[in-house]
Amino acid sequence: MQREKDYDVIVVGAGFGGIYATHHFANEGLKVLCLEKGEEIGGVWHHNRYPGARVDGDSIDYCFHFSSELYRDWRWSERYAGQDEILRYLNFVVDRLGVRDSIRVRTPLTGAEWRPDEQRYHVTAGEDLRLTTRFLVMATGNLTEPRTPTLIGLEDFKGEVRRTSRWPREPVRIAGRRIGVIGTGSSGVQSITAMAPDAEHLYVFQRTAHYSVPARNGPLDAARYEAVAADVPAARARWLGSGLFDAREHEEDSRPRPASAYSQAVQQARLEEQWEFGGQGMHLVFIDQTTDIDSNTVVADFVRNKIRGTVKDTALAEKLCPKYPFGTRRLIIDTGYYEVYNRENVSLVDISENPIERITETGIQTANGHYEIDLLVLALGFNAFRGSLDEANIRNEKGQSPTSRWDRGPRTLLGLMTAGFPNLFTLTGPGSPATVGHLVLLNEYHATWVSDLIRHMDAHGYATAEADEGAEERWTSHVTELAQPLLRLQGNDYMVHRNEDGSRAFIPYVGGMGRYIEAADLVRARGFDGLHFKPATSPSIRVPRTSATLADN
Ligand code: N01
Hints:
Radius of gyration: 24 Å
Bound molecules: 3-acetylpyridine adenine dinucleotide
CATH architecture of the domain at 5-53 and 83-145 and 383-535: 3-Layer(bba) Sandwich
Mean pLDDT: 94
Low-confidence stretches: none
CATH topology of the domain at 5-53 and 83-145 and 383-535: FAD/NAD(P)-binding domain
CATH superfamily of the domain at 5-53 and 83-145 and 383-535: FAD/NAD(P)-binding domain
Largest sheet: 8 strands, mixed
Strand content: 15-25%
Structural class: alpha/beta
């Protein structure tokens, strides 16, 4: 065992959130260490290196905005960057910020225990590392630990098995192989589209047909990039003040209105225009499509007709048409997904009709036949929101884990703290706009909020901060309340928590980034209202502040 080392902050995870947090805390003069379990930095962009992995929002948005200089020093090559380019970007950022030495890769957090007498977490990591820290900041993301549903017989399979969320760095041979993909969410759709041209045969095992819309990827639009680069703080402010999924500045007459405000011809023209532009904007063609089923059906029918117009085999096209309202599950964006089904070497296996019975030594046995496979690709999604917290083995003084009170859905204050866990923070946690907002800017905001809290504590001689249970309850109810009008509360994806009594809770905050930031700013402005503080038991707890490296905007 190595000697215990003490830190002000231990950050867990070196993806977008962890990299920024490490930089920001170091700039604040705090002694910080970032633990990363992967072989290299990058978080999801290290682990999800499956063929076709690509961001599903515009790259000019999906990057750090805290420094104009940093923003301008990197130029994306495409509208939606591929996994390898994003990983290169993150490496560029790490070097540019000078935080590589503060990150320990191949070092998973294996446990963290709060010791009230010392006002610190005792942390174990990697093979034999023992550390202590005042603050523990989980930057582990919400879609990190793979879902592992039981696939009977998987251990019997003699071929190769790969998970999209744990794709190896070594090349996986696609060419000339019979490939089976289970799962048709974003990861499935991207990998299916990328592997189809090279596979000898590709079998897609689809349980539910989901909506996918064209990304319209292409070389970076220089004018769009320059518009942001010319005034990065303004772009950042626009996002931080934005509504759900959208930071565009609409002219008065082009703002989305209810579908019923338009004639049928205008409805179709607006949908067509968005379809041609591509991307996530399909969520917001009509202001009421997320709440009104008639408005939603206009969009859903439009997309279903596009699928029918693309897939030549009409029976197959029907199987690919989603049956649920549009956008009630995270929207998938693609580059030629439905076209793949016109290929001779691609077959759709509808496992809602004929379920998988078992995996055999040589392939997949369904209710109506056996499919011979060499490579099995599992694109089964994630143990969302709580997976990485459970994995981390964090315990409070009562021996509880942070998710132990989450049986009716995550309970947090602002998505950042959970009651009973002093000095523990979850960047972009459940109850914040997390998976429905601007993830990178939310990470920036959260790290700043946490460091402001630490400053506040140091200034007042506090050693511990903990969410008050009542404040947590009020915030969690507010998050649940806001989602009540949304059709997507009836959806069936990882963002909805379903209780045994049939009630549901939507996990992320859906009031928009703007309202969320206002609420979090208000908590801060009121001296971190809703948190309990305890004074330091030892005078040495406060740290001297040192100087900054790269300044924020
Ligand atoms: O996971 P998912 P994902 N038997 O949960 C199926 C982000 N992301 O990794 O729908 C058979 O969406 C399941 O079927 P069903 C993005 O936020 C972003 O694809 O439950 N099938 C579904 O088809 C995204 O939303 C990017 O019936 C089973 C699939 O597995 C999120 O990650 C790229 C099954 C899981 O879909 C998750 O996407 C990739 C079983 N037992 C991911 N269990 C980009 O930025 C599950 N399934 C582009």
